[in-house]
């Protein structure tokens, strides 16, 4: 008995898919092919409820759920298995007119048959093709259950609830969804590139009434069942992969037909009344009356290619059909990739056997999920085939693992996460090939887990971006009057409105939650400014009364309880920096702001007096009109350099100091050493940090060495004179230790007689012999010949005044101070 072939034709909302599912479940086994992975998954879930998960399989390019005893298979058209089944159905068969995939639908229409029954589902426009290509098929026309009516053009702000707005690019989808979020509280987003998990989560929000609007691409026209009352077209043009063109009337009808459900009527329309985005009267008439141009031709490509060689494969794929209703399919991506690889000598060298040619063609079938374009996609396929044709013939585990691990993160915006989902689909496709990985089951499990995590992350990102439930609820509750918002400040500075966080108050700075944008941000800022003024005033008063322990400094910033409140700027001198309040304190009243500035100035002065008193005293001495020019120059240079200056840099004014002036410097805390002038207190950790802070304000800060260091490797961290370490030979020695050794050496010598200094002091400090020798030479000693069994002897040769060319130039700041001091105007 010959198996029955039935063609069920008609517009959308006719229950064709539902009828096919019922017929399949009445048979002992069945296979259904769908145009979209999303649709295959939707029907799979429905059949699982009827037959149980152990009996139902889902087969797509990126996902396979095939129980051992599976009898009913729900698949994408490309993934329909070749095994025998009692029932076979092909959904949306009119897609044989698609330039990229049409030949696959045509092949299934011609070659796939059920043992007992075959069902072809499609538009009524497909009737001529069924009559010609499947003449024995019984044609059943299913009328639409409900009426579809044109409702005219409506602005997005005036669309009725339960509307789906259809756009034809991701950018346009996002723009429309953002507009709906601002105007109507949010929208769910559905695109063909979404994973089933993300799509289902988004649709669930729409179906549950959490949002009243859905923004989608034309993917919703392929049988995805949603409770939509009105379909609005954001435009009537799309890019089909080759060019931008106006939708055909059949495509318009396919999408518009999603409006209405079962026997509930639906409407459709546009969002513009004129221009290219507006419907023409004849298009409206055709859609309402379901009258579309008949399909006269379908695309075809040889479904049984020749694998004898690469050239034979290409020739068989480019073979033209017999004259009639079948057209040769345009060159699709897989064939274009094959031709590119065929030009590579190494590919031809490896693809000599039919089995390897077949493997090459399978690799070329890897879809370009990421839409990279032909050249990048070809390089990716080339690398995959390279692994499949060498060694063990599998993709290396390390490469696979590295690439999928790189994608296993939900950080980033909607576009970034969507891009990762597209990328993981390529690796899921590889994992679903039975012999492309050493352990395909583990690879499939890993890619599925990552896709699910990315899908959950994408759903969360879509919801956060396009469904601001928090702000939407508030706007609905209070309208646009921000003064009605009940603002509460949490213990950690979080600003709450009815337990919804709208931002943070850190110190005096209010930061709006980054998830709130555009008009919502303005609303929240207005609310915050109204309700936070009192809290800021309270904080300002607390700052004025703060204990010293609550204040601190980090870099050039003054902190209060860890929050930045002011900044240090260069002042008249190093020890007298300016203090500027942070702009966040502009919110305070002028008297309170001045009180805060005075409190911070008192704290700063107290800290400088406690930690760097010498710098404060040096600043006063450099400007003392009663002091001699020599003292003013020395004090000015010392203060400008942060209390540490090489003696050679100011040799003449130091030698010109009187005994009383030297005593004054010692009272200030300055040690006039053999090599350096310095305040040893500045070498202590706290004082050193303050010193570097003051120098850093003027752009001359340095990295401090580790605390407690006495000797450092030369060139190491902090091993420089600016931090208090004098480089000598291969080491840098702290300047106070250099002076201690100098005094020990001078105490040990007797005039200019040779003597042997005790090396124990230097050794206890960790000073190497070479460093010690260099230091003694710097101090004015020289070695003299000694007996072999005697320790090295040194003799004082005296320190001559350096010539002017030998003396280092003073710092620019110090030079200015010296000039002012010598001129009597310091």
UniProtKB/TrEMBL annotation:
Alphabetically list the UniProt keywords: ATP-binding, Helicase, Hydrolase, Nucleotide-binding
What InterPro entries does the annotation carry?
Answer: DEXQc_SUV3 (IPR055206), Helicase_C-like (IPR001650), P-loop_NTPase (IPR027417), RNA-DNA_Helicase (IPR050699)
Annotated signal sequence range: none
Region Disordered: list its residue ranges: 793-814
Domain of life assignment = Bacteria
Q: Which residues form the Helicase C-terminal domain?
A: 151-314
The name this protein carries in UniProt is: Helicase-related protein
Report the GO molecular function annotations. Answer: helicase activity
């Amino acid at each position: 008995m010959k198996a029955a072939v039935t063609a069920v034709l008609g517009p959308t909302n006719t229950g064709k898919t539902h009828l096919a599912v019922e017929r399949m479940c009445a048979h002992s086994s069945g296979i259904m092919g769908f145009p979209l992975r999303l649709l295959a998954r939707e029907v799979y879930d429905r059949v699982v409820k009827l037959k149980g998960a152990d009996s139902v399989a889902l087969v797509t390019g990126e996902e396979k759920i095939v129980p051992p005893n599976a009898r009913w298979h729900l698949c994408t058209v490309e993934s329909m298995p070749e095994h025998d089944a009692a029932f076979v159905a092909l959904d949306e068969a009119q897609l044989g007119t698609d330039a990229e995939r049409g030949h696959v639908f045509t092949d299934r229409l011609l070659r796939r048959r059920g043992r007992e029954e075959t069902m072809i589902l499609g538009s009524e426009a497909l009737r001529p093709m069924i009559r010609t290509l499947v003449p024995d098929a019984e044609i059943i026309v299913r009328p639409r259950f409900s009426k579809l009516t044109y409702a005219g053009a409506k602005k997005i702000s005036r669309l009725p609830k339960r509307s789906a707005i259809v756009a034809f690019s991701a950018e346009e989808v996002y723009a429309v969804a953002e507009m709906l979020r601002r105007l109507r509280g949010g929208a769910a987003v559905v695109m063909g590139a979404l994973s089933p998990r993300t799509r289902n989560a988004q649709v669930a929000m729409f179906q549950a009434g959490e949002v009243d609007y859905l923004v989608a691409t034309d993917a919703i026209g392929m049988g995805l069942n949603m409770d939509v009352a009105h379909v609005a077209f954001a435009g009537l043009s799309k890019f089909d992969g080759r060019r931008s063109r106006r939708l055909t009337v059949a495509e318009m009808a396919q999408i518009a037909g999603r409006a209405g459900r079962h026997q509930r009527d639906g409407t459709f329309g546009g969002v513009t009344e004129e221009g290219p985005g507006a419907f023409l009267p004849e298009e409206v008439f055709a859609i309402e009356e379901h009258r579309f141009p008949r399909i006269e031709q379908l695309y075809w490509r040889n479904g049984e290619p020749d694998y004898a060689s690469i050239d034979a494969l290409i020739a068989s794929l480019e073979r033209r059909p017999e004259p009639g209703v079948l057209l040769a399919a345009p060159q699709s991506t897989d064939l274009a990739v094959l031709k590119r690889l065929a030009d590579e000598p190494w590919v031809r060298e490896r693809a000599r056997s039919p089995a390897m040619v077949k493997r090459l063609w399978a690799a070329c079938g890897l879809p370009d999920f990421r839409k990279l374009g032909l050249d990048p996609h070809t390089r990716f396929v080339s690398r995959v085939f390279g692994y499949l044709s060498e060694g063990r013939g599998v993709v290396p585990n390390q490469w696979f693992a590295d690439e999928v691990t790189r994608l296993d993160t939900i950080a980033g915006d909607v576009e970034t996460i969507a891009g990762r989902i597209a990328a993981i689909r390529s690796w899921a496709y590889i994992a679903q090939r039975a012999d492309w990985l050493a352990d395909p089951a583990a690879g499939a499990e890993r890619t599925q887990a990552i896709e699910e995590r990315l899908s959950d992350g994408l759903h969360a990102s879509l919801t956060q971006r396009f469904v601001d439930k928090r702000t939407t609820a508030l706007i609905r509750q209070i309208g646009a009057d921000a003064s009605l918002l009940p603002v509460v400040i949490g213990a950690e500075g979080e600003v709450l409105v009815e337990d919804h966080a709208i931002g943070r108050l850190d110190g005096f700075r209010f930061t709006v939650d980054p998830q709130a944008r555009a008009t919502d941000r303005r609303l929240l800022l207005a609310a915050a400014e109204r309700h936070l003024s009192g809290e800021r005033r309270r904080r300002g008063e607390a700052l004025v009364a703060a204990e010293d322990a609550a204040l601190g400094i980090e870099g050039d910033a003054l902190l209060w309880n860890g929050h930045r409140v002011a900044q240090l700027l260069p002042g008249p001198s190093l020890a007298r920096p300016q203090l500027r309040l942070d702009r966040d304190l502009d919110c305070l009243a002028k008297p309170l702001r001045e009180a805060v500035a005075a409190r911070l100035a008192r704290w700063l002065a107290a800290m400088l007096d406690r930690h760097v008193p010498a710098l404060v005293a040096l600043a006063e001495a450099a400007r003392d009109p009663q002091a001699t020019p020599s003292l003013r120059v020395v004090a000015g240079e010392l203060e400008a350099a942060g209390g540490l200056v090489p003696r050679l840099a100011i040799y003449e004014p130091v030698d010109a100091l009187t005994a009383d002036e030297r005593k004054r410097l010692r009272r200030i805390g300055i040690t006039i050493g053999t090599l350096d002038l310095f305040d040893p207190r500045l070498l202590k950790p706290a004082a050193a940090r303050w010193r570097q802070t003051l120098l850093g304000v003027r752009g001359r800060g340095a990295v401090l060495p580790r605390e407690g260091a006495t000797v450092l490797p030369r060139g190491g961290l902090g091993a420089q004179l600016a931090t208090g370490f004098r480089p000598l030979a291969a080491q840098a020695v702290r300047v106070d230790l250099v002076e201690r050794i100098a005094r020990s050496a001078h105490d040990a010598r007797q005039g200019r007689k040779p003597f042997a200094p005790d090396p124990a002091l230097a050794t206890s400090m960790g000073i190497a012999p070479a460093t010690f020798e260099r230091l003694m030479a710097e101090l004015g000693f020289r070695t003299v010949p000694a007996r072999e069994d005697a320790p090295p002897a040194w003799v004082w040769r005296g320190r001559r005044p350096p010539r002017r060319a030998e003396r280092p130039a003073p710092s620019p700041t110090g030079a200015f101070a010296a000039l002012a001091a010598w001129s009597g105007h310091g």
